[in-house]
Structures are given as structure tokens and as C-alpha cells.
Amino acid sequence: MKKKIIIISGDPNSVNSEIIYKSWKKLSKNIRKKIFLISNYDLLKDQFKKLNYKLKIKKVKNIFEIEKSDQLKVLHVNLKFNNPFKVPNISSSKFVIKTLNLAHNLALNKDVAGIINCPISKNLLRKKNIGVTEFLASKCKVKDNSEVMIIRNKKLSISPITTHSDIKTVSKKIKKKLIIKKVKVVNKWFKNKFNKKPKIALLGLNPHNAELRKNSEESKNIIPAIKSLKKNGINISGPFASDTIFINDYNNHDVIIGMYHDQVLSPFKALFKFDAINITLGLKYIRVSPDHGVATDKILLKKSNPASLLKCIHFLSNLSE
Fold first, then answer.
1. CA 210, 211, 212, 213 torsion-angle sign
2. How many domains are contained in the chain?
3. How far apart are CA 89 and CA 91, in angstroms?
4. Are both 275 and 318 inside the same structural domain?
């Protein structure tokens, strides 16, 4: 049996309904049959109406209902609203958390290939410095920070050691043990998924790697982590300076691992734009998401690019066969 693909509609106040519609129109019937969208049925209908999109949607009770492939199957979650693109934060927060909880429970089912969450404003998750990566890690009872964010396309993968942390806290979190743990997760995933030993580049934290001063994070934690990982047979090198590696040297590596979010995501997006997906490793199931935000400034403009969501769907579809 082909496994199901669960999509979470994400933040109501976003371009998500637009990219869902545009993606759906580009999918084959075989892939459409696998998809179940967790959303509010009425919200979706009203948003499509405002966008002047015509799409058949069907409210279903569970992921085992079989419907016509030209209908988008919706697992309904309650939400009160007046304007479909101006849902109050309190209502949006309750709705988003309910959809994530439902997706988590469904993803534990062996008949599910994985989940895709459309973009979500992090303030809706009600906790400081937490994104969907950390939210689902908590649901999966990951207690050792071994969950890993990896952004990838066919040319390159990148990953930050710390994810949604304020810059002022990053240096305190950069520890040898944490670096080793996360690099091992990335290395294992590449070996299992692609049957290859990845060539990994590890970046330093400070400008020019702090000239490798004795009390720098590079000397205290990053270089010792690299030495330990090499002893374990992992193909890793560094620390590299982050201001130059994305000029040309990134072509010589499968994965570039940085110390914090924007250190690797900003140059990656400058190079590849929407040609990427966000994957969370270390959970009890596979979670992917488009590599962009809610884009509130583009609501109703009908100019949003569905490429990243489409890549997420095809990624899970290939796993579901």
C-alpha cells in the first residue's frame, strides 16, 4: 500500500493557501491520492474564494477514506474567524497547535510517509526561541537536543548546530558534545538515505575563526569536536571561515554545518532561493517543510512561488512508494 502524505496548512495569515493551490494543480493524480491536508474546511474555502481559485475540497474523517483524486481531502480542525486572512493571534495559535498535534499523532502511523508543515509564525507556538523543529522534537520526547535541522537540494545541504536561538545565547550553547551529537545524526542520515559517506565542512563561530585564540569557541569546542569525529571515521574538515566558504568552496562538500541559523541559511538562500526543503532529522517520523516563511506582505497578490512545497511533496512521495 502506498503511504499517505500529511500536509499541515500552517499559519492562517499567510500565503499558504495560495502555494497549496498552485502545488495541487501541478501534481499527478497518483500523488494527489496520497495527500491529506490538516486545515479548517471553511477557512480554506473562504481563502480560495478570495483568491478566486476554484478547487474541489472534501472534508474527511480520517486518512483511510478514499476519495476522487481531483478532490483535496481535508481533515477538519475547528477555527472561529471572520476574515480568513486576518485571524486573531489567539485563535491562530490554538488552531496551529491543534493541527501540529494531530499531524504528530498521525505521523506515528506506519501508513504515513511523513508530514509537511506549511509556514508558521513562530510566535503562534507560544514559547520563546521555539520553531516547529523544536515543537515536534518535544512531542517526540527528544531530550538530548539530537534533533537536527537540515536544508537541502540536489547540490548542497546545510545545517545549523543551534536552531532558533537568539544570537546572544549561541556562544554559550556551542559545546563539543553537542557538535559531535548533531554531526553524527547528519552523517548517519546520509549513509542511510543516500548510501554515501558525506563530505562535511564545519564552520567556526567567530570572524576569521577568532584567529584560533586559546579561549575562543573554535579552540575550546569546535576543533576538539572535529578531531573526535575524525577518529570515529567521519569525513569532516574545518573550521572554515563562514565569510568565504559560500563563494566557491561549498562545491567541494556535501554538507556545510554552521554554528547558528543565519550563518548558513542566509547564504544558502541567496544562492538557491526556493530550490530547497527543510528536513528535521532525529524525530520518530519524517518532517519536511518549505524553505520560506509566511510572507504576509504577499497575501492576495498571487505571486508566491510554490516550488519549495512541491519539492517537499515529491520528496515524501518518493518515500511512500
1. negative
2. 2
3. 5
4. no
Q: Tell whether 125 and 223 lie within a shared domain.
A: no
- pLDDT digits over 192-209, tens only? 888 999 999 999 998 887
What is the helix (H) or strand (E) element at residue 113, kind and residue range?
Answer: strand 112-117
Closest C-alpha among 172, 236, 229, 241 to residue 205: 241
Q: Residue 177: which domain range?
A: 145-279
User: At residue 111, what are phi and psi to the nearest 5 degrees?
Assistant: -85, 5
Residues 83, 201, single domain; the answer is: no
| Angle of helix 16-26 versus helix 41-50 axis, rounded to 10 | 80
Q: Which of 150, 148, 146, 131 is nearest to 256 (CA)?
A: 150
pLDDT tens digits, one per residue of 47-106: 999 999 999 999 999 988 776 667 899 999 999 999 999 999 999 999 999 999 999 999
Rounded to two decimals, what is the model's pTM? 0.86
Name the grid cell of 98.
Answer: 491543534
CATH code, domain with 237:
3.40.718.10
